[in-house]
Amino acid sequence: MNLLAREPLAAFFIGISSGFPYALIGATLTTRLAQDGIDKKTITAFALAFLVYNLKVFWAWIVDGVRLPVIGRLGQRVSWMLFAGALVIAAVVNLALVDPRASLRATVVAAVLLGIAGATFDIVIDAYRIETLQPSQLGIGSGMSQYGWRIGSAAAGALALFIAAREGWQAAYIACAAFALPAMLTALRVGEPPRHEAVAQKRGPGEVWRSIEGPFRDFLTRPGAALVLAFILVHKVGDTLANLTFRLLFNDMGYSNDEIAVYDVGVGFWAFLVGIFVGGILYERLGLARAVLLALVLMALSNLSFAALAAAGHSNPGLAAAIGFENFASGYGGVVVVAYLSALCNLRYTAAQYALVSAAASVVGRVLTGATAGALIESLGYVKFYLLTTVAAVPGVLIFWWMWRRGTVDEALGSAGRASSGA
Fold first, then answer.
1. pTM value?
2. Cβ neighbours of residue 104 under 8 Å, at least 6 residues apart?
């Protein structure tokens, strides 16, 4: 397992850029809105901006089949990496310039625009990662990508909090726009992925339609596809509901920006890295199915730690413990679950099919968060809310266990994972 090989290192650096838009329209924007006095129902409704990520499958075919003018000569993946990165930088600056207290509508529009740019960036980054990695490197590449993702999101979150406390939120967001550069520079340095297969340019409506429905048809005609899709849809419901509300909990418990930066970003960062390391080891030793099942159980249990924190009250050791466990579980789960989702892809539809499975993985949780999370917190309180998110994670565990027992985990793998599943 060579962490310093060219391909895993590329996955690491592009992962840095993948993580930061999520942080800016997730935890960071939640803190900004809470400090501006926006009510909880409105704040959690901003989670609907993430729904743009769930729609990315409908324009992923553009990344596969539309050649960009001028910079297209650099290669399909490289040119799109540069273009999408520039879109993200522009969208971050735009979000920096809006004032939530003056216009919530403008803030919503800016958040959605960043979601569109970030989702497009993700389409390119995911395709670049899968096509750059050799089949035997899917597990380690997923781990390195998760390392990068966490570093990008944690560093952007910490930098934003640090600068916001001293220079204001506008300067904080503008400074964070630089996190788009690692992926752009990596693409220029490494070049086109060796496993990228050029496809015909999409010109007529018939070709466009086949580009959109082809990945769906390929996936849905596999053995056990309905069961796999059900798992993908529900397995992150509890995790998503909980993760997008943590900053509300911290704010209501009276934690300062500096405390959040130290414990949420500091302790959480290192716990996440340890989880990724353990995930890489156990993925090889346990095999895909056992490793994913363990990840699902750990991610479900991690929500209980925040119920305990809410019950205990303001406590720095308690905050460190809750964040540490949650990030360890997320780090471990990120390696094995991302490897599994990557293994489901058919290499003929790399960008579009990974966009499909990754978007489906969080759509239910994001809808529930945006529509109900704030109201549930206000009616139930934080303790019961986090207990509810734990219960919401149970169906995903049971469905995957049933898939494993039936042999569906192996049968439904795509061409990207059959030589590297380890199951």
1. 0.73
2. 38, 42
Among candidates 343, 349, 361, 357, which has minimal Cα distance to 422? Answer: 343
Greater model confidence, 308 or 202: 308
Q: How far apart are CA 203 and CA 194, in angstroms?
A: 25
Question: CA–CA distance from 391 to each of 243, 244, 267, 397 (Å)?
Answer: 15, 17, 26, 11
Burial per residue of 348-372, b for 16 or more beta-carbon CB atoms within 10 angstroms, e otherwise: bbbbbbbbbbbbbbbbbbbbbbbee
| 296, 235 contact by CB (below 8 A) | yes
User: Could you please report the per-residue DSSP string of 134-156?
Assistant: -GGGHHHHHHHHHHHHHHHHHHH
Which of the two residues, 296 and 50, has the higher pLDDT score?
Answer: 296
Q: Is the dihedral of CA 214, 19, 373, 331 positive or negative?
A: positive
Listed residue (341, 107, 145) closest to 232, CA to CA:
341
What percentage of the chain reaches a pLDDT higher than 70? 87
Q: How would residue 421 be classed by pLDDT, with cut points 50, 70 and 90?
A: very low
Determine the average pLDDT of the residues in 45-54: 68
In the chain, pLDDT over 90 holds for what percent of residues? Answer: 17
CATH architecture of 6-187+206-411: Up-down Bundle (1.20)
- Greater pLDDT, 337 or 265: 337
Q: Is 106 helix (H, G, I), strand (E, B) or coil?
A: helix
